[in-house]
Amino acid sequence: MELLKFIDEFIDYLMSERGYSYHTLDGYKRDVYRFIIFIKSNNYNIQNLDIDEVQKFVNYLSKLGFSASSIERCIAAVRTFLKFLYVYHNINTSFIQLIEVPKKEQYIPDVMTIEEIQLLLEQPDISKPRGLRDRAIMELLYATGLRISEALSLKIYDINFDENIIRVSGKGSKERFVPFGNIAKEFLYNYITNARSYFAKNKDNGYVFLNSKGGRLSRIGFWKILKEYAMKIGLEYKVHPHVFRHSFATHMLLNGCDLRVLQEILGHASISTTQRYTYISIAHIKEVYKKYHPRA
């Protein structure tokens, strides 16, 4: 059976039935393709596939240097694909739940200090349209904890300046409303009012953050911009687009934010995802304790 022909059908299924984002779909497609190539190269028959053969795929990923979390993600994609084959093409894959993956290490996100965040925010030259745009994006990310994909997908009508609220379309097309503060409001309003037209030119697509050609600013485009500013202050080793989200969550917890409220703001489906930020908060508290307590 030629498995490659099922990939596009599988991706269409994920898009229509599960509402996955293009970013997630791309990851699933890449992981499933890797699995199919492994099956073909070892002359395994998908209709007679057993747990040992799939377990060899797990071992293969490990030998390639994949982390435990990457293997877990890949196997999750493979599980979903094999379930799809079972339901829609009557291929028995019930054994897939028995597959063992390496234990995932506790992931602790990168976080910047408040001083580092402030220094980074001050890097763009806000006397120029590009600098005003960049400052507005960074202020918004730190003020709201949005995923970079969510921020770059915002349209003008998603922002309510009167109420300081943004409508966000998150993972799985789930909609939520996120507040933002007055400092972010000032830079965002200034950019939209005085600088956005510089990028929009004659073709306005409605997106808030635009590139030099008038199109929506991409994730890669913003990553390059951010890296440029981080290098100026020697923080390129710890700065990436998601660091604003991680720092936002950690600083909120350190200042007493309720975990359930933070979960809603971040758009996490599970509270356990939000709880990972408590590890950072506890580590920070211990660090401060050791520094300031006379008998620490």
Fold blueprint:
Layout: H1 7-18, H2 22-41, H3 51-63, H4 68-89, H5 114-121, H6 129-144, H7 148-152, E1 159-160, E2 165-169, E3 175-179, H8 182-194, H9 196-200, H10 219-232, H11 243-254, H12 259-266, H13 271-292
Antiparallel strand pairs: 1-2, 2-3
Strand order of the largest sheet: 1-2-3
Kindly provide the name of the CATH class of the largest domain: Mainly Alpha
Structural category is: mainly alpha
Total number of distinct structural domains? 2
Task: From the structure above, extract its key features.
single chain; 296 residues; mainly alpha; DNA polymerase, domain 1; hpI Integrase, Chain A; 2 domains; 3-stranded antiparallel sheet; 4% strand
What does this entry look like structurally?
The protein is mainly alpha-helical and 296 residues long. The protein has two domains: 3-98, Tyrosine recombinase, N-terminal domain (DNA polymerase, domain 1, Orthogonal Bundle), CATH 1.10.150; 114-292, hpI Integrase, Chain A (Orthogonal Bundle), CATH 1.10.443. The protein contains 13 helices and three strands, in the order αααααααβββαααααα. It has helices at 7-18, 22-41, 51-63, 68-89, 114-121, 129-144, 148-152, 182-194, 196-200, 219-232, 243-254, 259-266, 271-292; strands spanning 159-160, 165-169, 175-179. The chain has a three-stranded antiparallel β-sheet. α6 (129-144) runs antiparallel to α8 and α11 (243-254) crosses α13 (271-292).
